[in-house]
Amino acid sequence: MTLTFAAADAPSLPLYVLEPDAVSSWLEGQSPATRAWVEANGFAGGIGAGLMLPGPDGGPIGALAGYGTAAQRARVRFALCAAMPALAEGTYHIASGLPQQDAATEALGWLLSGYAFGRYKAAPVKAKALIAPEGVDAARLEILATSEALSRDLINTPAADMGPDALEKAVRDVAYRLGGKVTVIKGDALLDQNFPMIHAVGRAAAQEPRLIDLRWGDTGPKLTLVGKGVCFDTGGLNLKPGASMGAMKKDMGGAANTLGLARAIMALGLPVQLRLLIPAVENSVAGNSFRPGDILTSRAGLTVEINNTDAEGRLVLADALTYGAEETPDLMISMATLTGAARVAVGTDLAPFYTDDDALAADLSAQGTTHADPVWRMPFWEPYETMIEPGIADLDNAPSGGFAGSITAALFLRRFAGQTRYAHFDIYAFQPAAAPGRAKGGLWQGPRAILGALPGALGL
């Protein structure tokens, strides 16, 4: 879906954004009737408070939105749109009270609040439009919101309608609209062209495994994105319990996030040579499923002992990362819903990432704060390298013991990134419960931070 601001000349109601300390001074300039109305309704400027202001005829002449204190806003992303449920349908413009340094973030939150997934059931219309606040880059925010909406739609779509075929089509659609080129290697051609681990993970599924390769841009530094596209993960022969399998339509969240990020880069016209690699598979159970105890030989030539078929994401990413590194990009970034250990470490609200580049790490963290896309650096902890070395093969895809699972997975991936400057994001890509600007369901985690860091990382 497309998320946009209302036209600047559209009829609109003024929206007064008030912190708790500003309510009294604002009321001093209002009519006795307005003061009485606001006081009677107990509006105090807290986050989530909203109040329509009636005119003499009872119709609305404006609205108030609580903005809370700075300390309260530090705990709530997109604080302004928390007031939206209390506002009537219509179009609004910011009349006063929104700090200029917050305007872009809060306007983006308002746009994202308009997202609804309506493929299978008519979504409720949220006709609460906003005219872009003065001083914000409205076109950029619309690109970001619409790109995230694409990612959310892909994640929210169940695997029956979002298998490798549909994911490939989604990539082709983005490329067609924005001038990219797509090539796909699939089925037994993966073996012929040396992508053995992508083939092994996906060969048991009804839809053929594949490597989707999108390219865009002919000049500038080379940026390669790699997204885990496991369209559904049964766990393979190490079958997941039902409670764990129910959410596995989102196991292609890394692919969805990188495709949305790629769309944003293309739509913004960033001066880069962009490449997006998505190994798209379904980890299914059949007579030809790969097995615990198997030893696979990767594209890089490293052998991998399979100790758990449910640790499949790192296998498909490994071949894709090796392929991406062969062109020595200036920066390579992978995104994947890779480990439950990451959720145990930082919960669902933070996106942990790994990189050896201290300057890049610092900028990603800073940009995540600036753009309401929080990320948290985790360590490539060298002493744990021995945990991914099983003895009878070069690498172990699922070290025993259960400790440091996100770190050992990241260390595994790093083995395939070569000498390329590299960052890996172990994301959740899902909002467990609705929050301001974030409907329950698929979610961006990391793309805005990455976009903010690209100019420094690539010298743009």
Automatic annotation (TrEMBL):
User: Listed GO cellular component terms?
Assistant: cytoplasm
The biological processes this protein is annotated with in GO are:
proteolysis
Residue ranges occupied by any Cytosol aminopeptidase domain in the UniProt entry = 308-315
Q: Which UniProt keywords apply?
A: Aminopeptidase, Hydrolase, Manganese, Protease
Membrane-spanning residues where? none
User: PROSITE patterns, per this entry?
Assistant: CYTOSOL_AP
Instruction: Give the enzyme's EC designation.
Output: 3.4.11.1
- Gene Ontology molecular function terms on file: manganese ion binding; metalloaminopeptidase activity
- Entry's PANTHER family? LEUCINE AMINOPEPTIDASE-RELATED, PEPTIDASE B
- Similarity comment text for this entry: Belongs to the peptidase M17 family.
Name by which UniProt lists this protein: Cytosol aminopeptidase
Tell me which species this is from. Tropicibacter naphthalenivorans
Gene label: pepA_1
